[in-house]
Every structure is written in C-alpha cells, then in structure tokens.
What does this fold into?
Amino acid sequence: MSKRILMLAGDFVEDYEVMVPFQALLSVGLSVDVVCPDKKAGETVPTAVHDFVGNQTYCELRGHNFMLNKSFDEVNLADYDGLYVCGGRAPEYIRLNEKVLEYTRHFFNENKPVAAICHGIQVLTAAEVLKGRTLTAYVAVGPDIKLAGGTWKNIPADQAVVDGNLVTSPAWPGHPAILKEFYKLLGITINM
It folds into this structure.
C-alpha cells in the first residue's frame, strides 16, 4: 500500500505550487488527496500564476482550473503519512478555517512529515506550530514566521530548509529541493 499525502489548496492556489508537487508525488507512487474547505471531490479551484515582471512584487495572472480529488469533510487524518501545504493566494483565506488548522496541527503533533511552500507557511503560522522552528517562506511571509515564534531564513528561491519533520521552500523554483527533502522525510529513496 502506498503512502498517502494530504495536500491543502484553495481558490487561487499558485498554479505551479499545486500542479508540480501533485504530479511529482504521484510519479513516485504516492497517493495524494487534494482538498479545499467547503468543496467536494470533482469540484475545481482556480489557480493563479505568480510572476515577476518588473514591479516591486509579483503580479497575479489567472492560471488553470485544478480538480480536487477528495472532499474536505471526508478527510480522516489517521489515513495520511504526510501533509503538503501549497502556496499562492489560497493560504491567506484557508487559514481562517478551523478544520484546516486542526488538520495542520495533527501532522505536527504526530511528528508526520510536513512540506510547505511560499505563502503556504501562512497556514502554519495561524496553526501556531512554528515556535522554536527554523524555516523559510516567500520573503513577505518572513515577519509572520517571527511573530509566530519561529526563525525565518532568507534563502534563494531554489533551496529548501529542513527542521525536524518540516521542510519549506520560498517559492516554486524550489520544487526540486523541497520535494527531495520531503521524500527523505517520508522514507522514500530514489535510486539511479
């Protein structure tokens, strides 16, 4: 039986930050359930593409529709071996859902592997699971990490930080790094 991953997403999740890890996790034989509060399997969430085009911050363009494959209210946390928190606009509002915070705390309380990218760390700050942790996030989320009792590391976007059962990366260029470390936390080895 393959290991199961719970992936948290929502409306305007960053396109790459849901599509790439979802497909990459499936490609190594993991089972991945992607959920969004108040939505059911078969419904979609719109994605957003975050890109830098010369402004002081990223611009947000409309991406694809991503189909959810699990109903949010049918999640049984005991079924999952790891949690993946996607970035984009979604974390800003899904962190207001108490069940999202409950789901997130479960993985920390049980010391199960957790990966979070970019703005996905906003879910972790709201869940109050970062005290004493060292991690990274998109630069604008750095102050939130500090306020939540964690230590923020400003690293290049293509890198990742591991602290115990938690791996984080600042943005989608870090997919190779965050996924490599998440696989290790899950006990998956890839031989070439």
Helices lie at 15-27, 90-94, 98-109, 121-126, 142-147, 175-186. The chain has six helices and eleven strands. The longest helix spans residues 15-27. The two ends are 23 Å apart (CA to CA).
